[in-house]
């Protein structure tokens, strides 16, 4: 179960309440629990899924933890917190356990994973979870498939340039079969959900530009995200954050592809393909590099990493 599903489970109340005092082995250097004891059994913690505050006035004192295949919420209850003190008295509480799939009804399992159709399930199984960018990628693929069906083309006759490296890329690779490996997908990361599609048989190229303005993050989303990045979020903040993400997902899923993307015809340009099989050695690091990625400089061939080091050193010394 990934973090998205865990937070949805808490929001949907798919939990078993425990609320018992427990003994915890705590690493004071790393500031994380290592294990806890419950019903005469030691639960070693294999992953800290999330570290949060139970109240905004407190330091980080709550942990969603994974122990084997079980997931728990564990927190330290302060008796009387005083930020001036190095140590404050209190006790550890095992609050609840997230229910596993075999402990919930099928309907709730699907709702937790937001899997509403087989296509979405297919890409979510590959990607690992459902998120807004994955849905954007799916909507783009749906639009392209509509055009392919109208043209009577095949998926293998298209080439795509994506202007981002988000989760949308996984949807494209799964649904359209254009992958980085078969050289029919190229990424030029500009942080935009823009996609240039080349229909090779017809020598026609189209630009798909994301247009859904309501997708731009509001003040609530940005402020909570800032708290999370600064390790200053409460468990309620994190659940609200996931709820806002899920609202984006639901909204996007209910839109038609034409509501999500503007499409315009652009000038045709023959796509460039990588020629594989020819490798040379970098003159500096001695590692093997694809020939087309080598940089020739002052009589020697360099990989991009070594060339950038040489270039930076030359600029520092003012050498041309």
Helix/strand class: alpha+beta
- Arrangement of strands in the largest sheet: 3-2-1-7-6-5-4
CATH architecture of the largest domain: 2-Layer Sandwich
Radius of gyration: 26 Å
General shape: globular
Low-confidence stretches: 316-320
Return the CATH class of the largest domain: Alpha Beta
**What does the average pLDDT come to?**
86
Return the string of H and E elements. HEEEEEEEHHHEHEEEHHHEEEEEH
Domains (count): 3
User: What proportion of the residues form beta strands (DSSP E)?
Assistant: 25-35%
The percent range for helix content is 25-40%
Let me know the largest β-sheet: 7 strands, antiparallel
Textual characterization of the structure:
- This protein has 320 residues and is α+β, with helices and mostly antiparallel strands.
- The chain folds into 3 domains: 3-107, no CATH class; 114-212 and 255-266, 2-Layer Sandwich (60s Ribosomal Protein L30, Chain: A), CATH 3.30.1330; 279-316, no CATH class.
- The protein contains 9 helices and 16 strands.
- It has helices spanning 3-11, 106-113, 118-127, 132-151, 168-176, 219-229, 235-253, 257-260, 304-316, and strands at residues 15-27, 32-38, 41-44, 47-52, 62-67, 70-78, 90-98, 158-162, 185-187, 194-199, 204-210, 261-266, 279-281, 288-290, 295-297, 300-302.
- A hairpin with a 6-residue loop joins strand 13 and strand 14 (288-290).
- Helix 1 crosses helix 7 (235-253).
- The N and C termini lie far apart (55 Å).
């Amino acid at each position: 179960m990934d973090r998205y599903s865990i937070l949805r489970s808490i929001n949907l109340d798919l939990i078993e309440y425990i609320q018992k005092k427990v003994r915890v082995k705590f690493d004071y250097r790393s500031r994380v629990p290592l294990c806890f004891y419950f019903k005469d059994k030691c639960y070693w913690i294999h992953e800290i899924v999330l570290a949060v505050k139970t109240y905004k006035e407190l330091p980080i004192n709550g942990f969603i933890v994974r122990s084997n295949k079980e997931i728990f919420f564990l927190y330290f209850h302060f008796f009387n917190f005083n930020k001036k003190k190095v140590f404050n008295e209190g006790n550890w509480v095992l609050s609840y356990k997230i229910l596993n799939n075999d402990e919930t009804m099928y309907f709730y399992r699907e709702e937790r994973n937001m899997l509403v159709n087989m296509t979405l399930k297919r890409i979510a199984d590959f990607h690992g979870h459902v998120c807004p960018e994955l849905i954007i990628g799916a909507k783009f693929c749906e639009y392209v498939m509509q055009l392919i069906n109208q043209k009577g083309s095949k998926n293998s006759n298209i080439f795509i340039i994506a202007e981002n490296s988000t989760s949308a890329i996984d949807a494209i690779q799964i649904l359209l079969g254009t992958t980085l490996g078969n050289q029919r997908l190229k990424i030029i990361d500009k942080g935009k959900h823009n996609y240039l599609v080349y229909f090779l048989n017809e020598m026609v190229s189209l630009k798909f530009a994301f247009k859904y303005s309501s997708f731009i993050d509001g003040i609530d989303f940005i402020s909570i995200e800032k708290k999370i990045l600064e390790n200053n979020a409460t468990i309620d903040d994190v659940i609200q954050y996931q709820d806002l993400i899920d609202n984006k997902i639901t909204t996007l899923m209910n839109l038609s592809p034409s509501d999500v993307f503007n499409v315009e015809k652009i000038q045709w340009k023959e796509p460039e393909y990588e020629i594989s099989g020819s490798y040379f050695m970098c003159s500096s690091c001695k590692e093997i590099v694809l020939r087309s990625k080598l940089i020739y400089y002052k009589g020697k061939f360099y990989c991009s990493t070594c060339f950038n080091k040489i270039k930076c050193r030359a600029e520092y010394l003012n050498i041309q």
